[in-house]
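In this notebook, the sequence line spells out the residues, with the fold written below as integer tokens. This is how one looks.
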Amino acid sequence: MALHCGRSVCNFARNNKPMRAEKAGTLRVGTSSWSFPDWRGVFYRPQTPADQQLSFYAQQFNSVEANTSFYALPAPKTLLRWLESVPEGFTFSLKAPREITHEKRLVNVEQATAAYLEVLRSLGPAAAPGLIQFPATFTRASDGRRLAAYIDSLAISAPEIPLSVEVRAFDLMTTAFARFLLDRGIGFVVVERTGQPDTFANWQAAVESVGTRQTLHMRLIGNDRDPLPDDKIIRRPQDELLDKWAKRIADLLKDGRDVYCYVHNPFEGHAPETVRRLRARIGQYLPLPDWNPTNGRSEEEEDGGQMSLF
């Protein structure tokens, strides 16, 4: 797999020179999905209808990772309903369909990829970086050339769409691959997951070599191989990891870099509370603006039971 940037593709890289940050970066943080049965009566009020959970969620956090798109892309009417449920400034990180990455493994996926990119375009300013996740069996040794060609095609066909790539094969968790992505204006996802290396230093080294104020896209997953009995409470606190990431995130924000962070339930047991715990730690290093959206459905509206369909 060629990990050096060709001239034609490099034209799509973000070539901003390093400079002193005039203002802090933006933190967008949320959970992986917003609909879990165990959140009812804990995060959501018991009477909150399922179709109003996103509206309530978006009053608490400013971004969400939508995993439903991994199984099937949302229909236009679903996208419209999502956008109508959230306030201005809220963003969605949509996971690429498994057909592309896990089933066809980048073979004959032009149509599926075009459909995914069109969904991201439809989100407009509500689009956080789209998540293209590859399985651990998708390696540099076996699939590197195909992966390189696919990344090049994305850089050429969709330079305006924010995208990030997550790999789970150790031979792709490298500074060289991170730089390969960043050279093409595509993010390298940093993951905190039990049994995987910490690739933050790889991302950081790649950013420094490319010379851009690249956004960090990160996911706090934890031990997803050891399921907890439910998703209701913090069952295995990760204070040291939260402290580590809070300091890293704060430093990036101070440097003017934007951060997208998504927390999974297995990380501590109840992702909404973990998000709050993480924000509180970051706030010890620099003040974070409150998320006080001016539109969208209010908590009082949630109390009303059924709401108008229009």
Remarks:
- Confidence is low (pLDDT under 50) at residues 1-20, 296-310.
- Strands lie at 27-31, 63-66, 91-94, 130-133, 163-166, 187-188, 190-193, 216-222, 259-263.
- The two ends are 52 Å apart (CA to CA).
